[in-house]
Prior knowledge:
This protein is an alpha+beta fold. It is built from five helices and 16 strands.
Amino acid sequence: MKKFLILISIVIILLIGNIIIYNFNIDTEKTFIKPEVFYSSQGKTDFNVVWCETFTLAWDELKNYIGNDIEFNDGTPELVQKLNQRNFSKNIISHNDYYTKVSKLNDKTIKDLKNDIYKELKNKFKVNQSNFLDNIDISSQNGIFIYTMIKKQFHFLEDFDNLNQNIFIDINGKENRVNFFGINEKSEEKLNQNVEILYFKNYYSFILKLKTKENEEVILYKTEDIEKYSLDELYDNVINLSNSYEGKKELEKDDVLLVPYINLNFIVNYDELCNKEIRGTNGIYISNAIQNVDFSLTQSGGKVDSEAIIMTDTLSALPTKTEYYEFNSPFVIFIKENNKDKPYFMAKILDTTFLEKD
């Protein structure tokens, strides 16, 4: 039987928020880079590199408040059209794992509003504080405040082995040394139960599913077409290829699995959605649209923490823009609940920026 040499490298920005941490023992002693800030109007975060459903959830609350799909008087960007079409579905994620809050800013003081949110987050997720929420400047008293959170944490059936550093070749062919976990010739055979082969064509095209105790599915897809397709199209490819695959499903004794330690921590400012009057609303516009994502993957499991905030206002001072930082990566990751049709987290990765190197 042909041996599989599986090299899966994943690096992630983020996207998409902070999931609050339960009392699990996932390894958090690794050192990773600090959060970066990205802007959707630059075309780098718009559904093409990273996506988490936190922002869809907030957008749906905004549509409910306005009463229909969002359109702008001076033209509707493609991102808005996609958000209008996407819709958050309960078939994507369990109600136990997400939270929403919609409040009129003139109903309560900002302090009382945040206190209410923290009280509800503590009851649902045992969360006492959010730096993301604390650092949001709420200066308007005329619009609405929408806050959403997705909180997920999962553990593999068995902890993978720490395989130390190995070579990762990025999208430009540059070799980098990063830390990996997985399975090699010294690993116990019981670790193979963590892995299901969904599709295998060759070294450059295969799909694996990593199984977890919480029935979350970590799907890793290696393909030479990563830049050719969007995240949604790549996930469709995963479904089509895995449904037609008739090869072996399990790792064998001498098979090798290499997965890099990943830590993504970033903020996305959807600035192209802001400061444009929403059609049919007599001057309402989005004053702030922002999302954070905290994602990590280790030999024990992973977490997805994501928050999103949308605020509206009427004819007040416009927020200023800050500096933009570009980010790329060469692999795709999808996180979904078992037996659900769609993932709640997706990421396309093109370099080693967020891979652990020390």
